Structures are given as C-alpha cells and as structure tokens.
Amino acid sequence: MSTSPGKKSIFPYLVVATGIICCFGPCSFALSCAGIYFTPVSESLGVGRGAFALYLTIMLVVTALVLPVLGKLTETKDLRLVLSAGVACIGVPLIAMSFFNAVWQFYVTGAIMGIGLAEMLILTVPTLINRWFRKNVGFYIGLCMAFTGIGGAVFNLVGGYLIGTGPEGWRTGYLVFGVLCLVMALPFTLFGVRSHPQDVGLLPVGAEEVAEAGSTQAAAPKGIPAARAMKTSAFFVLAIFTALVNLGMNFYQYLPSYVSSLQQFPDVVAIAATVASMAMLGQAAGKILIGIINDKISVRGGLFFAMICGLAGLGVLLLFPGVSFVVLAGGFMFGVFYASGTVLTPLMTRTIFGTLEYSSIYSRVAMVGSLCGAFAVTFWGLLVDSIGFQFTFIVMLVIIALLIVLGLLSLAAGRKLVPEMEQS
Which pTM value belongs to this model? Predict the structure, then answer.
C-alpha cells in the first residue's frame, strides 16, 4: 500500500493508547502489584515469603534471557500477533495462579510471565513509538511508561481490596487481574496497531516536517544494522550504562527501610510509606519530563536531568534526615532518576544507533540491564546489612556519577556512527 503524504489519521494515537494500556494493565499486574500477594499466598500455601517470591526472580531472569529472541520477532513479525501473545503470556498465567496449590506451579507460570513482561514492558512502547513517530518521540515514550506507576497505584488498591474479601481472597485477586489483563489489552493489540505506518498507507507522524528540516530521521528508518552495532564501543558502553542504571534504580526498594531506621520522626512508619509513594510519583513525572527534555533540548539534557535528580535526592535524604518534607522531596527526586531505566536508555539507543533495526539492538542492551536488575534488590540488601545505610548511599552516589561519565562516553562514540546512518 502506498503512503499518502499529509494524510491524517487517528491510528497513530491508537498506537499510543495501546502503549499506555499495555503499561497500565499487563505490566502493572505482573510487576507493580506482585508484592501484595507475597504474604497471603505464602501463608495459604504454608511456605516462606522468600520461597514464594522466588517466582518473581525467575520471571525477571527469563525476561532478560528471552529479550534477544523477542527483539528479532518484534523486528520481523506482525506486531499484532507478537504483542497479543505477550498479553496472553501474562493474563493466562494470572488466571491459572488463582487455582494453584503448590509453590512450584508459580515458578512455572513466573517463567511464562517473564516472556510476556519482556515484550510488554521493555520492547512494546519504544518499538511502537519509534516506528510511528518522528517528532515528540521522547514525550510519547515517557507518557506510556508513566502508566506503569499509575497502574501500580490503582491496582495495588484494587488487589488489596480483593485479597481482603476472604481467607483466600488472593485467588480472586489473581483471577480478576488475569481477566482484566486480557479484556483491557487484547482489543488494542489486535486492532489498535500495525507493524508499520506504511501498512495502513501512512507516514510516521512528523516525518514530512523532519524531512523538510533536513534531519536524518525522516520517513524511512535510518540507522546501524544490529550486527554492526553490537561490534561498536558505543554498544558496550551503553550496555554497561544500562546495567548500572538497573542496579541503581532498584535501590528505591530500600528507601522506606532507610526512613524506618531514622529516629527523628515519631510517625516514622507513615513517613516511610509516604516516601515510597513520593518516589512512585517522581517516577511517573520523571518519565514524561525526561521525554520532553529529549525532544526539546537533547538526550544529553535528559541524561543530566535524571542523574542530577538522583544525586540531589540521595544527597538530601542523607544530609537532612530530620526534616520530613525534605525527606519526601528526596524520595520524589530519586523517583525521577528511577525513570531513566525505562525512558532514558531506549532514547539513548535510538540516538546512537537509529531506528533501522532498533528492536534487535535495544533488546540486547536491555537484556544486560534486566539481568542486573533481577539480582539488584538482593545486592543492595546484602550491602546495607554489611556496611549500613550511610556508606551504601555513598556507593549509590558514586554509581550515579559514573553513569554520567558512561552516558556521555556512549553518546560521544555514537556520534562517530552518524556517517554510517546517513548511508543506510
């Protein structure tokens, strides 16, 4: 089907809606809401919380390992089938979990959900937005990704209510979440997307404007082939950057524990819970802000913004532990840094390698980050236990400073690839 310059259509915004729904529903059900089930399910099955929560580790490890395969499928197959299969890999296991009576069954479904999570959380949004838009790419990626936090806030409340309906209310919770996952997302993944705008006779939104401005990101995808990209120094530096981002962002899990250890607050439990909520709000805001800065200034601007927020947030948490509103502001700022894991890294990948084989390249970059993230919570827990919170904060500050250096190095190495992109 030939493309029609200037043709207007609602379809690109159905694509954005699909990205939002995939983050709001399936991703939240699989990841953001997992923690509310740890205690009721482990008590019902008569196992320890750690033994039950192992299914989550299995899910995250599988997520990392299948990314290269899914990246290739996302690049070459009909996205309606790939995305719908990803939704099914989350929704069907959630329904099945409502009937389970042994912990090993959760391990099996955790592995299946890991496949769906790899597609839904890591590949879907950047792939869709990069194919369908040539302007405001950062904003739309950030907007979609922000709904993982919004979904977590909404569905944790829903799940908590369902769990409280009876002795085995967790079964109702899993059943409802599984059905909602399928009902919410499948209509969008089946009917709201196409693999490329050319499939429905369209150009990417903004392609004509960008082409007139003389940019390399016009209608046709331009970039470095995956086989070539993975041999460059830019790829290896970006992979290390992504690994450290995923390690650092998971320190968020210990902010409530840090606040709980403080003696300055009579209402320390409430402050600890609130700092976690502020970090979630910061994460949602940060995803949108990083995207806007990428569009209006540069990806370097987004890098500095995210990292400075991380440094500032940790700094005030460490230096002003007795001032409640400062502690909450620190949690919010660290949440902005957290957002860099799902927004900044795909934008940097796009900037460095282009859009030609984006899914294949980003899936491999994200695999390194996801593997690191799968064990990050355990790493930080061991570190806090061995050296305490103050020294752990210093380690985290050093990591963020290192991320600034690595981010700039990867972008500098990417500039050397621009002539190759022009020829693609």
Answer: 0.82
Say if residue 419 is exposed, middle or buried (CB neighbours under 10 Å; 0-12, 13-18, 19+).
exposed
**Residues ≥6 apart with Cβ < 8 Å to 133:** 12, 140, 204, 205, 206
- The structural domains of the chain, ordered by start, are 11-200 (1.20.1250.20), 221-419 (1.20.1250.20)
Q: How far apart are CA 347 and CA 338, in angstroms?
A: 15
What is the mean pLDDT of the segment spanning 99-126? Answer: 93
pLDDT in tens, 201-243: 888 887 776 555 555 445 566 788 888 888 999 999 999 999 9
Torsion of CA 262, 265, 267, 272, to 10 degrees: -40
Residue 397: which residues within 8 A CB-CB, separation 6 or more? 311, 314, 315
Handedness of CA 35, 40, 45, 50 (dihedral sign): positive
Q: Write out the two tokens for 293.
A: 């800065």
128-179 tens-digit pLDDT: 998 899 888 889 998 998 898 888 878 888 888 898 887 888 999 999 999 9
- Is residue 380 within 8 A of residue 254, CB to CB? The reply is yes
Query: For residues 314 and 400, is the Cβ–Cβ distance under 8 A?
Result: yes
Given the structure tokens 């890098």, which residue do they identify? 303
Q: pLDDT per residue over 285-302, tens digit each? A: 999 999 999 999 999 999
Give pLDDT tens digits for 177-188. Answer: 999 999 999 999
Beta bridge partners of 133: 205
Calculate ∠ Cα 65-68-73, nearest 5°.
125
**Distance (Å, rounded) from C-alpha 91 to C-alpha 113?**
8
User: Residue 17 is which amino acid?
Assistant: A
* Cβ-contact 132, 15 below 8 angstroms: yes
